[in-house]
Amino acid sequence: MTVREFPRLTRGVAAVSAGLFVLALVMAPAALAADQPKYGGTLVFAVPKDPPSFDGHRENTFALIHPVAPHYSLLIKFDQWKYPKIVGDVAESWTTSKDKKTYTFKIRKGIKWHDGSTLTARDVKATYDKIIFPPPGVTSVRKGSYTMVTKVEAPDDQTVVFKLKWAAPSLLANLASPWNFLYKATILAKDPHWYEKNIMGTGPFKFESYVPGSHWIGTKNEDYFVKGRPYLDGYKAIFIKATSARVASIRGGRAFIEFRGFSPAGRDDIVKTLGNKAKVQQGPWLCYLSVAINNGMKPFNDVRVRKALTLALDRWEASETLSAIAIIKPVGGVMRPGSEYAATEAELTKLAGFGKDIKASRKEARSLLKAAGVPAGYEFTFKNRDLPMPYEPMGIWLVDQWRKIGLNVTHKVEEKGPFFSDRKKGNFQTIMDWSCDFMDEPDLQLYKFLSHGKSGSNYSRYTDKTLDDLYVKQSKAKSKKERRKLVRQFEKRVLDEKVYTFPTLWWFKINPHWAKVKGWKQLPSHYLNQDLRDVWLAEK
Amino acid sequence: MQRYIFKRFLLMIPTLLGVAVFVFLLMRVIPGDIVEIKFTSEGGFVTEEVLAQERARIGLDKPIWQQFASWIWGIMRLDFGTSMWTGRPISHEIGIRIQLSLEIAILATMVAILIAIPLGTLAALKQDTWVDYFIRVFSIAGLSIPSFWLGILIILFLLINFHWVPPMFFTPIWVDPWENLSQMIWPAAAVGYRYSAVSTRMMRSSTLEVLREDYVRTARAKGLWERVVIIRHAMKNAMLPVITVIGLEFAFLIGGLVVTEQVFNLNGLGKLLVQSIAQRDYTMTQTLVMLVAVTFVLVNFVIDILYAWLDPRIRYQ
Fold first, then answer.
1. Where are the domains of chain A?
2. Average pLDDT over residues A259-268
3. From the candidates B99, B101, B265, B284, which should be mutated to test the interface with A, based on the most A CB atoms within 10 A?
4. Which chain A residues have a beta carbon less than 8 Å from that of B39?
5. Alpha-carbon gap, residue A329 to A317, rounded angstroms
6. CA distances (Å), A355 to each of A312, A346, A391, B172, in order?
7. Is the distance from CB of A150 to CB of A166 less than 8 angstroms?
8. Which CATH superfamily is domain A73-187 in?
9. Does B76 touch chain A (CB under 8 A)?
10. Interchain contact B77–A (C-beta under 8 A)
């Protein structure tokens, strides 16, 4: 650049900058207006299946949450903009006693049920009594998460008190569970099963109609207690089982979003069709695929063999390659990578099978197999679910990884019925396992690893009192630091010392949708943030 | 004729009883537990106590004979019970879907008849000409192409060329005929084409056979118009095997369009049946299989009566 050219260039840059500045000033109001929530419109979204019943306390499928959650309020909830921060929903504030064994919640005044009556603390108490101490014949699927609660009291109309046996760090998160819809005390007193087939809530949308297998319609609750919400006039959830039909429904504008998520191919199809009318939200998902090993069966009762199986896996490479075709990506231990109690990468890479030197890991795996007396070419079976995403690619990948340490594995894909039966009865050598939760909370994620019999989802069939004790200790830990340390000990014992079972990759959530859908933020769980309170449509 | 109908009607009873026993036992033999599938499919925190409580709630803790007796007693009173999966009355679940299934079956049958009978007859009349060859290729293509695949092609064609896909949920024809047809016409065309292929070939070979019969020659010798010979003498007789095919296909369409229903997101009985089998919803599956069996038995019954009406020799035998 010459001296003469420099000032000319500077002048040019200055002119362009000034132009851009003026343009920005002109465009700013339009851009701001575009981000200003608009009222009206009906959000149409696809749901892959129907809810079995309408009662959030007894079900644990997202198929219930997505169409039903907009009808209900919670006591407290996760803040969609600052997850995992917890904020009040019907609770306007809460306090904790010094010994952390008493939680007192103040309930907002003037909250109306959809029938016009007023919500009081008695309704909150009745709801939590049903969840924690269900009457005979009433199923509360998550009551095991509240074993620390001794009593729920409602001393007056605006106060609810939870009394605990011990200080439990997980209590607040459990109370913010998206399943804990608030139900009306008088209805529950008459019939605790009423909510299985009926809707009566205080949420942003009232129930209008449901046609099983077809659709669910909700309309705006004009008396909703949050001023100015909801923005939408209503919503329509369409039940579409086939993935290809769900993708087509969004491409063709019959639905604007599907909250659970699509595969990378589905995302690409939608983006290709919609172009700049599409928006993609994607991020880590609070679900993972794991390998359950039958610890009671030879040669898998030998820790060396189990360790060899995890050492064979090149998770870091798979994270790159498999994520291009399947909804799996993050490498993690027993807690979701990046979450509060998760292992850091430095901690993780010290665990068997999570190191980055795959050659060394596989060399170690081969020597462990040899030491355990497992011959080269040893044959065994890996059983898998008949679901293409993400089970099938993961199964194929596992078989290939094990082949690389000289094992000859048959990939047996089973229909749902036999698969669940085999997994439950221990009729397998190795089998695909998985876990999905609604929040990052060690009490939930570690439960799976408790001894067989204590945990309903320990399919690896081992008993380990040390793990059970560690679980209780972390659950009662006095500080986050102490809890984190205990979770690390727990993780090291499960994944490195005993290798009873091991995660492969964590899921990766992909939500492509119409860009006109605003006010919905993808969170790590597909169970959260589904009340549609803040959702609005930029175009109707 | 009445005696014939009565005898045929009585024969339906042991057939249906056999189906009831068979489907009940089959569902219990195949592995799978509805409670396990329902509560552990998505992982999460579920205790053994909850699973046991749910099994008891839907009556799976009772002895098998008791479960069978209770179900069959209900069926006899036309009380199909409740779905183990949803807890809703089975009659309600079926009622919602049967209208769509019937409509798609009727539309597809109409498409098939409209294609098959004229084309089959024409192919026979123009045997070994280019018309015949074209119709044969058209019908063989219909046999070779699965209807769900054709359905996928139709959807992609509409999506790529018109940025449009058919509606994703059912609107009854009396509520909005246009909306209804804009959803139903595509699967009806996809299914009807395959359905017509079988019938076209059947119609062609049957007509060819009939055209060589003595009574057709006699009709021509009498000096009847060719149109009268074909329509009154040949087609009526050629229709016998075609009616059988159309009837059986119609019964199949009521509960058999599993994949096509998924492709077009049709809330029909086929989808419900497969879903209930996958979920091990015993009561729902048993009732749906019984419904399909009743449909088949009834359609066969009607076909037999039609046969007897079209060919008096059958009822005299």
1. 73-187, 284-508
2. 96
3. B265
4. 60, 141
5. 10
6. 11, 9, 23, 59
7. no
8. Dipeptide-binding Protein; Domain 1 (3.90.76.10)
9. no
10. no
CA angle B39, A417, A298 (to 5 degrees): 95
Location of structure tokens 């002895």: B63
Distance CA B260, CA B146 (A): 9
Q: What number of residues does chain A have? A: 540
CA dihedral A255, A260, A264, A269 (to 10 degrees): 0
Say whether residue B282 is in contact with chain A using an 8 A CB cutoff: no
Q: Which positions ≥6 away from A123 have C-beta within 8 Å?
A: A182, A183, A184, A185
| Number of A–B residue contacts, CB under 8 Å | 155
At A86, list the tokens. 């917890």
ipTM at complex level: 0.85
Query: Residue A493: which residues within 8 A CB-CB, separation 6 or more?
Result: A464, A466, A467, A470
**Could you say which DSSP state residue A157 is in?**
T
According to DSSP, the β-strands at A536-537 and A76-78 are unpaired
Instruction: Put the strands of the sheet holding A102-107 in their side by side order.
Output: A91-96, A102-107, A159-164, A149-156
Nearest chain B residue to A387, by CA: B41
- Tens digit of each residue's pLDDT (9 = 90 or more) over A199-226: 999 999 999 999 999 999 999 999 999 9
Please state which CATH number belongs to domain A284-508. Answer: 3.10.105.10
Residues for chain B: how many in total?
317
Tokens read off for A11: 């002048």
Residue B292: CB partners within 8 Å, gap ≥ 6? B251, B254, B255, B256, B269, B273
Instruction: Collect all residues of chain A within an 8 Å Cβ-Cβ radius of residue B48.
Output: 453, 456
Instruction: Please report the domains of chain B, with CATH numbers, ordered by start residue.
Output: 97-278 (1.10.3720.10)
pTM to 2 decimals?
A: 0.89
In this prediction, residues A418-429 reach a mean pLDDT of 93
Give yes or no for a contact between A494 and A449, defined as CB atoms under 8 angstroms apart: yes
